[in-house]
Amino acid sequence: MTAVADPVESGPALDASAEDYLTWLSVERGRATNTISAYRRDLVGYEEFLRSSGLEVADATRQAVERHMAAMARAGIGAGSRARALTAIRGLYRFRSEEGLGDSDPTLDLPVPRVGQRLPKAISEEEVLKLLDSAGGTGPRDLRDRAMLELLYGTGMRVGELVGLSLGDIGSDSGLIRVLGKGHKERLVPLGRFAAQSLEHWLDQGGRPELVPRRWARKGDSEALFINARGGRLTRQGAWEVIALRARSVGLGDKVHPHVLRHSCATHMLARGADVRVVQELLGHASVSTTQVYTKVTVEHLRGAYEAAHPRSGGRAKRRRAEK
User: Fold this and answer.
1) What is the pLDDT of residue 171?
2) pLDDT tens digits for 41-85?
3) Exposure of 276 by Cβ count < 10 A (0-12 exposed, 13-18 middle, 19+ buried)?
4) Where are the beta strands (DSSP E) in the chain?
5) Which of 158, 201, 233, 246 is labelled catalytic?
6) Which residues, at least 6 apart from 199, have a Cβ–Cβ distance to it below 8 Å?
7) Cα–Cα distance between 123 and 18 in angstroms, integer?
């Protein structure tokens, strides 16, 4: 696996204790790169608000934190993002206390914004096939895009995990691929027949070798499983642009988001009778409760189909008869 640049080293400068806090989260607690980046943004916004009120991190009050959270809500920032911001701020003050940098905690007993449970949105099996077939050509980019889409749907891995794959992560004969997930936890994921075939075509002549540059621009690019047209490791943003472009080409632009194939993989497996523990292992969820959200998706789909079709459901079928 190729290491990802530490986000603690980039972005606007923070209070010294906040910088130390982010470093501690990254190095000592092993928090994911995206988590650290999100916490940095949250703390930057918090410190900017404090400065506008003539305050510093060390002398912030409960009222100041409450005003900051209220300002975020007025700005239209969702409850989930506000809850994460409060978690970052609260963690900062606990870190300061443990490091002997002050005992005051202005976040003490502050309520966390309520986050309603949003069911993950999957697309249908037919729509997945349309998306996969959008990369049906034989050019190197078509072969790359097809392999990417097949892997995302076939394994349920995250886009960030996909672009982090290196050639050495593919098992030679085992039919497994090694994935580095959240918290730097590795897991082995089985490759289905279609994913394995598309990956083989991408790695064969006419695929990845066609995009290999004469000289690699950055260390580690030569080991990247997926590369861009310039021969560099494909980034998260680059991968998302590929997916979005393919989705728009088949009229699915408004339905596709970075995790849609991951959600679809889990939803379709559970709908076909897969054990929730198996899906948990496949997706790399730390808790089975996270995976169980997808069972609610399949139940909602079942309920919708029943209400639409059964004459005694009292749902849409009944309403249609009343309209005649």
Assistant:
1) 75
2) 999 999 999 999 999 999 999 999 999 999 999 998 888 889 999
3) middle
4) 176-180, 186-190
5) 158
6) 147, 150, 151, 170, 191
7) 41
Considering Cα of 36, then 244, then 123, then 76, what sign does the dihedral take?
positive
**pLDDT at site 6:** 44
Q: Which two tokens stand for residue 185?
A: 């936890």
Residue in 84, 146, 262, 263 annotated catalytic:
262
- The active-site residue out of 259, 296, 316, 318 is 259
Q: Is 185 a catalytic residue?
A: no
Active site residue 294: yes
Whether 236 sits among the annotated catalytic residues: the reply is no
Catalytic residue among 94, 182, 255, 296: 182
Any idea of the CA torsion for 229, 231, 232, 233, to the nearest 10 degrees? 80
Question: What domains are defined for the chain?
Answer: 7-98 (1.10.150.130), 125-305 (1.10.443.10)
- Ranges of the chain whose pLDDT falls below 50: 1-9, 317-319, 321
190 bridge partner residues: 176
* Cβ proximity of 148 and 242 under 8 Å: yes
Ranges of H-type helices in 115-170: 125-133, 140-155, 159-163
